[in-house]
Specification:
- The complex is a heterodimer.
- By secondary structure, chain A is α/β, with parallel strands linked by helices.
- Chain A has two domains: 15-45 and 303-415, no CATH class; 62-283, Spore Coat Polysaccharide Biosynthesis Protein SpsA, Chain A, CATH 3.90.550.10.
- Chain A contains 15 helices and eight strands.
- In chain A, strands 3-2-1-4-7-6-8-5 form an eight-stranded mixed sheet, with helices on both faces.
- Chain A is globular.
- The model of chain A has no long low-confidence stretch (mean pLDDT 86).
- By secondary structure, chain B is an alpha/beta fold.
- In chain B, the strands form eight sheets. Chain B has a five-stranded parallel sheet, sandwiched between helices. A four-stranded parallel sheet of chain B has the order 6-7-8-9, covered by helices on one side.
- In chain B, helix 16 (510-517) crosses helix 17 (519-536).
- Chain B is elongated and about 120 Å long.
- Classes of the chains: A alpha/beta, B alpha/beta.
- The A-B interface holds A 98, 104, 107-108, 111-112, 117-127, 129-131, 133-134, 137-138, 231-236, 239, 415-416, 418-421 and B 355-356, 367, 369, 371-378, 381, 392-393, 401-403, 405-408, 410, 418-422, 424, 437, 439.
Chain lengths: 421, 594
C-alpha cells in the first residue's frame, strides 16, 4: 500500500507539465476554468468595489409575501424578524397553504395583534406557486418580497434588497442566503461552505457579469409590475429559477445584493440533502432544457448573448462535468491500472488546494459568514463536493432526462403535476 | 340597670325638637316604659290613665301626638278620638295613634280605623315607637303648614277614572300603588302595613311603574313581603302575579298565592319582617315567596337580566353576593354577558366585521386554483358569464378537480377592501354606540340564588342564628312588660338581695311542627303551654310570650333552682298538648345582668 503510494508520488513528481495535462485533463477542462472564473471575479470585486447604488425611492410601498405549509413553529419568528427591519415592510401577507397544523390559528393571532395585514388559509394544499400567486393578487406594494417561513433576516436586509430597484430596469433582486445551522451536522457545515462559495461569492460574481439567473425562493424581491406581467409564478417546482428566467426573457435585469442577508436552515441529514438536490437539479434540467429551451435557440427572440453565458456555464460546469467525470475515471483505470488511484488522490490534493484558496477568497468577499469555524471542514467539503455531489447531480440529471421524475415530485400536489407544463 | 341597658341599645337618633306627647294607657308598666323611652328621646310626656282624663288633657293642652290605648277605663280610645276630632279642629288636633292588642275589636267598630292616623299593634316594639311618633309629628307639621299657607295645591292626580279590576272585588285587603303607596307617600293603611300588620294581603299595581320607583317598597318596613299583583302587565316577572288578563284559573291561583304568602309571612322572623337592611329583606322576600331569586333575560334593561323581585338587577346582585359570602344564599349560574367597556351596558350588537376597519360590510368569496398555471384568486376574477376563464393564461376551466379546485374562501370587506380568511367578531353597544372587539370585551356572570339551609333558618329564627347577636339575651326580643318587671326585680335584688331568675324558653321542635302542621297550630300549642306553665308555677311570676322565645321571670329563687323547678313542671305543662314542643329552659340569674 505504502509502496504503491510512494511509487505514485514519485511518478507524479517526475511528470513534465505536458504529461501532467495528459493525466489531469478532466481537472484542466472542468475544474481549473471554474476556479479561475471565481478568482477573477473575486479579484475584480475586491479591487473595484461596487459604486454605492443610489437608495431606493423611499415612498415605494413594500409587501412581503410568505407562503407556508405547516409552519406553525417558524412563522412567528419570521414575522418578528421582518418587523425588526430598519425598513419594515408596509404590508405582510401570509398564506397557509392547506396546513394541517395550527398555522391558521397562529396567523389569526398575528393578525389580531396587527403584526401582519392579511392572512389567508386554504383548506386544500395548492403548492407553493399557487399560494404565492394568491398573496400576489392581494399585494399592494410596488416591490413584493418573497420569503420562506424558515428564514430570518438581518436588520438591514430589506433596505439593502430595495436599493437596486432605484434602477428602473431592475426586475428582481436576490438576497444573500447564509446557512443558519452550519454547525448542526457535518452535512450542514459542508452546505455552509457551499452556500458561501456559490451564493455569497458566486452570485456576487454573477451579478457583476449580469449573469444572476436564480432569485432563490428563500429571499427575493420583485418589482410587482414585472412579476405581474410575467404572470406570477408558474406551476411546478423550481419556481424561483423559472420566474427569474421569465423576467430575464422579458428584458428585466435580475441582480444580487450581498448586503441583503438572510439566514436559512438547510437539511441536516445526508438523505434529506440528497432529496433536496435531486429536486433542484431535476427542476433545473426541466426548466432550462424543456420550458426555457428557446434561450439556446439562436433563431428565437429570447436568444441573447447575455443569457447564453449562464446557459453555457450550467452546461459545461454542471452537466458536462457530471457526465464526463465517470468516463474520466474509467479511462484512468483502464489506462493506468493500479496507478489510477494515486493519480486520483493527486488530483484531489490539487483540488483541495484550489478549494482552500476559493474558500479564503469567498470568505474575504462574504465577511458576514463566520468562515473561521468552517475551516476544519474544508478537506471533507472538497471530497464531498468533488466526488459525492457530482454523482448525486449525475443521478438527478439522468433520472429527469429518462423518467421525467420532476413530474412526480411531492413538493407539488399531484393534481397539479397531472396538468402542468 | 337592665332597663337602662335596654334603652342604651336604642340608636341615638334623637330629634332636634322635643314633641309634646299624650300617652293614654291604663297599664302602669306600659305607660312607665313609654314615658321613660320618650323622655329620653327629648319629648315631653303627659300620662292619662283613663279615657276621660285623656280627653280632658286633649282639650286643655296642645299635643303633637297622642297615643291612645283602645281599651281604656270609662271611655275607650276610639271614643276619645271621635270626641276630640269633633271638638278640636285643625291646629289643635294632634296626630292620633291607637295602641291595641285587640286589632280585630278595633276594626269591628264602624269607622274604627278612620279616626286614627295610625294603629300600632301590641306588643309594642320599643325600638320603633319613638321613631313612629316622630314621623307622625313631622306629618302634622306639614299638614299645619298647609293649613296656614293654602298656597298652590299640588295638581290633583289626573282624573283618569280607573276601572276597578275584577281582582279588587275578590274581598282581599289590597294596598294600591300609587293610591296607597308611592315613592314619597304612604296612606294610613299602608303605614299600618309597615308595622307588620298581617291583615294586608297584597300590593296591587294599578298604574305602570318603573322598577326604580317600585324599589322604594324596600325602604319601608314589612311591605316587601307582600305579593305584588300587577294589573298593568308591565312588570313581567318582577310581579308575583300578572293580573292584566284574568281567567277563572288565575283567580284560584291568586287565592293560593295570597294564602301561601300569608302562611310563610307568619313564619318569617320579626327581625326580618321589620328589617330595613336590604340583604335581610331579600332573604325574607325569598323565604316568603318560597322561590329562588331567579334571573331571567330582560331586554328592557341595559343589564339584560332582571330578578323576580321589584328591585334593580345591580342592587340584587350586590346584596346577594354578600349574602353568598355569609353562606345564606348559594349561586346557580344563569348566564354570561359581555360588557360594553364604555358604559357597562350588556346590550351589545354582535357582528362579523372586517379586522381592519371594523365594517360589517363583508362578503365571502371563494377562490379558485388553476392547476396548470398556478393562478389562484377570487372566483370573480375567473367569471365570464357562465364560463370560468383563468385571468392569467386565458384558458377555460372545464373540470373541477382536474383543471381547478376551490382550496378556500376569503372574506372581503366592501368598505376597505381588506381580505381575510375569517371575519373578526365585534360588539357595538346599543346604548352608547361604543365598539369592542369580542376577544377583549370583559364578561360578567349572572347568577340565580337559592336560600341555603342557613338562609332558611335565618328567615325563621332571626339574627340569633347569625352569630353577631348570639348574646344570651337580646333586649330587643324582650316584651315590654318583661323589661319593666325585670327592672323592678333588679332593683329589689340591689336593695335586699332577693334572688330572681329570668328563664328563656325555646322550642326545639318549632320548625318540625310548623312544617308538619302549620304555623298556626304551633302558635296555639305554644300559647297553651305558656298558660299551663303560668298556672303550674306557685311562686310570684311573670310568664310572657316573646318573639322567638318565651320568657319566665321567677322571683325569690336563683337560676339553678329555677332550672330544676321548670324542668320538673315541663312534663305537666306539656301533657295536654297534642304534640311535643321540645321546650327547653335556659335560666339566668342577677349575675348575668351585671
Amino acid at each position: 500500500m505504502w509502496q504503491t503510494a510512494s511509487d505514485g508520488i514519485t511518478y507524479l513528481l517526475s511528470q513534465s507539465g505536458e504529461s501532467l495535462l495528459r493525466l489531469f485533463w478532466f481537472v484542466a477542462i472542468f475544474e481549473i476554468p471554474r476556479y479561475m472564473l471565481g478568482f477573477i471575479a473575486v479579484t475584480v470585486l475586491s479591487f473595484c468595489p461596487k459604486t454605492a447604488r443610489p437608495g431606493a425611492v423611499d415612498d415605494d410601498r413594500i409587501t412581503v409575501l410568505i407562503a407556508g405549509h405547516n409552519e406553525e413553529d417558524s412563522i412567528g419568528r419570521c414575522v418578528q424578524s421582518l418587523l425588526e427591519q430598519s425598513r419594515p415592510p408596509d404590508e405582510i401577507i401570509v398564506v397557509s397553504d392547506g396546513s394541517t397544523d395550527r398555522m391558521p390559528e397562529k396567523l389569526r393571532q398575528l393578525q389580531e395583534r396587527g403584526l401582519i395585514q392579511e392572512a389567508h388559509c386554504t383548506q386544500v394544499r395548492s403548492g407553493k406557486s399557487a399560494a404565492v400567486n394568491l398573496a400576489l393578487g392581494r399585494a399592494t406594494g410596488d416591490i413584493v418580497i418573497n420569503v420562506d417561513c424558515d428564514c430570518t433576516f438581518d436588520r438591514h436586509a430589506l433596505k439593502r434588497i430595495l436599493e437596486p430597484f432605484a434602477d428602473p430596469r431592475t426586475g428582481a433582486v436576490a438576497g444573500n442566503i447564509i446557512v443558519g445551522n452550519a454547525t448542526d451536522s457535518l452535512v450542514t457545515a459542508y452546505q455552509a461552505i457551499e452556500y458561501m462559495i456559490s451564493i455569497s461569492q458566486g452570485k456576487q460574481a454573477a451579478d457583476f457579469t449580469n449573469q444572476m439567473s436564480c432569485v432563490s425562493g428563500a429571499f427575493g424581491a420583485f418589482r410587482r409590475v414585472a412579476l405581474h406581467r410575467a404572470g406570477g409564478f408558474d406551476a411546478g417546482g423550481g419556481e424561483d429559477l423559472d420566474v427569474t428566467l421569465k423576467l430575464r426573457k422579458a428584458g428585466w435585469r435580475t441582480l444580487f445584493d450581498a448586503g441583503a442577508i438572510c439566514y436559512t436552515n438547510v437539511p441536516e441529514t445526508f438523505s434529506a440533502l440528497v432529496r433536496q438536490r435531486f429536486r433542484w437539479e431535476r427542476d433545473a434540467v426541466r426548466l432550462r432544457y424543456r420550458k426555457h429551451r428557446d434561450f439556446l435557440n439562436p433563431f428565437s427572440a429570447a436568444f441573447s448573448v447575455r443569457d447564453l453565458a449562464h446557459e453555457l456555464d450550467f452546461i459545461v460546469f454542471n452537466i458536462a462535468s457530471a457526465i464526463v467525470f465517470p468516463i474520466y475515471l474509467v479511462w484512468l483505470f483502464v489506462t493506468y491500472g493500479d496507478l489510477a488511484l494515486t493519480i486520483l488522490i493527486g488530483a484531489q490534493v490539487g483540488m483541495l488546494v484550489l478549494d482552500s484558496l476559493t474558500f479564503v477568497l469567498a470568505a474575504l468577499v462574504a465577511p458576514r459568514v463566520k468562515a473561521l469555524r468552517l475551516v476544519p471542514y474544508i478537506v471533507g467539503y472538497s471530497l464531498f463536493n468533488g466526488l459525492v455531489m457530482r454523482f448525486v447531480r449525475l443521478a438527478a440529471y439522468l433520472q429527469e432526462w429518462v423518467f421525467e421524475a420532476s413530474y412526480r415530485d411531492t413538493y407539488v400536489p399531484s393534481k397539479v403535476h397531472r396538468v402542468r407544463w | 340597670m337592665t332597663a337602662i341597658r335596654a334603652t342604651n341599645l336604642e340608636p341615638a337618633s334623637h330629634p332636634l325638637t322635643g314633641r309634646r306627647v299624650l300617652v293614654a294607657e291604663d297599664s302602669p308598666t306600659t305607660h312607665e316604659i313609654l314615658k321613660l323611652l320618650l323622655t329620653q328621646r327629648g319629648h315631653q310626656v303627659d300620662i292619662a290613665t283613663d279615657g276621660e282624663q285623656a280627653l280632658e288633657a286633649l282639650r286643655r293642652n296642645h299635643y303633637d301626638v297622642a297615643l291612645l290605648d283602645f281599651h281604656l277605663p270609662k271611655m275607650d280610645g276610639l271614643q276619645v278620638a271621635t270626641a276630640a276630632k269633633s271638638e278640636l279642629g285643625g291646629r289643635d288636633l294632634p296626630r292620633l295613634i291607637a295602641i291595641t292588642a285587640d286589632l280585630p275589636g278595633l276594626l269591628a267598630h264602624t269607622g274604627g280605623c278612620e279616626n286614627f292616623d295610625l294603629v300600632i299593634p301590641k306588643p309594642l316594639d320599643i325600638y320603633r315607637i319613638g321613631q313612629l311618633l316622630e314621623e307622625q309629628a313631622q306629618l302634622r307639621d306639614e299638614q299645619q303648614a298647609e293649613i296656614v299657607e293654602p298656597g298652590p295645591q299640588p295638581a290633583p292626580a289626573p282624573a283618569s277614572v280607573r276601572q276597578p279590576s275584577a281582582i279588587e272585588g275578590l274581598g282581599y285587603d289590597f294596598l294600591l300603588w300609587p293610591q296607597d303607596i308611592d315613592v314619597r307617600r304612604l296612606s294610613a293603611r299602608a303605614m299600618q302595613a309597615t308595622l307588620g300588620d298581617p291583615r294586608f294581603d297584597a300590593i296591587l299595581i294599578t298604574q305602570p311603574v318603573s322598577v326604580e320607583a317600585l324599589s322604594s317598597l324596600w325602604e319601608r318596613k314589612a311591605l316587601y313581603v307582600l305579593p305584588i299583583v300587577d294589573l298593568t302587565g308591565t312588570l313581567g316577572q318582577m310581579a308575583d302575579f300578572d293580573g292584566s288578563q284574568l281567567s277563572k284559573v288565575d283567580m284560584e291561583r291568586l287565592g293560593g298565592l295570597i294564602r301561601d304568602f300569608q302562611d310563610r309571612r307568619a313564619r318569617l322572623h320579626r327581625d326580618l319582617l321589620l328589617s330595613d337592611k336590604l340583604g335581610e329583606q331579600l332573604i325574607g322576600r325569598m323565604f316568603v315567596a318560597n322561590r329562588p331569586l331567579t334571573a331571567a333575560l330582560d331586554p328592557r334593561y341595559c343589564h339584560l337580566a332582571s330578578y323576580d323581585v321589584p328591585l334593580g338587577r345591580r342592587l340584587v346582585t350586590r346584596e346577594a353576593e354578600v349574602l353568598c359570602e355569609h353562606g345564606l344564599l348559594k349561586r346557580e349560574f344563569f348566564e354570561r354577558f359581555h360588557i360594553c367597556p364604555a358604559c357597562d351596558s350588556y346590550r351589545l350588537h354582535v357582528r362579523e366585521e372586517c379586522s381592519q376597519c371594523r365594517s360589517s360590510n363583508l362578503s365571502e368569496e371563494q377562490y379558485l386554483h388553476h392547476f396548470r398555471c398556478a393562478f389562484q384568486g377570487p372566483e370573480a376574477d375567473f367569471r365570464r358569464g357562465d364560463q370560468l376563464i383563468c385571468p392569467k393564461c386565458h384558458q377555460e376551466l372545464t373540470h373541477f378537480g382536474f383543471d381547478y379546485d376551490r382550496p378556500g374562501t376569503m372574506i372581503v370587506c366592501g368598505s376597505c377592501g381588506h381580505a381575510a380568511s375569517e371575519p373578526s367578531v365585534g360588539f357595538v353597544c346599543l346604548d352608547c354606540g361604543a365598539h369592542t372587539d369580542s376577544d377583549v370585551a370583559a364578561t360578567r356572570d349572572i347568577f340565580s340564588y337559592q336560600l341555603t339551609d342557613g338562609g332558611v333558618s335565618f328567615a325563621e329564627k332571626g339574627g340569633t342564628v347569625l352569630g353577631y347577636a348570639r348574646e344570651a339575651l337580646r333586649f330587643a326580643d324582650l316584651p315590654l312588660e318583661l323589661v319593666v318587671a325585670l327592672n323592678a326585680a333588679a332593683k329589689k335584688y340591689n336593695e335586699d338581695k332577693t334572688p330572681f331568675a329570668l328563664v328563656n324558653i325555646l322550642y326545639r321542635k318549632e320548625s318540625e311542627i310548623v312544617a308538619e302542621h302549620g304555623a298556626r297550630r304551633f302558635a296555639q300549642a305554644r300559647d297553651l303551654f305558656i298558660e299551663n306553665l303560668r298556672a303550674a308555677l306557685d311562686k310570684p311570676n311573670t310568664v310572657v310570650r316573646g318573639q322567638s322565645y318565651d320568657f319566665a321571670l321567677l322571683e325569690g329563687i336563683g337560676p339553678e333552682q329555677a332550672q330544676v323547678d321548670l324542668d320538673h313542671l315541663k312534663e305537666g305543662a306539656s301533657r295536654a298538648l297534642s304534640f311535643d314542643l321540645g321546650a327547653q329552659f335556659q335560666a339566668f340569674g342577677p349575675e348575668d345582668f351585671s
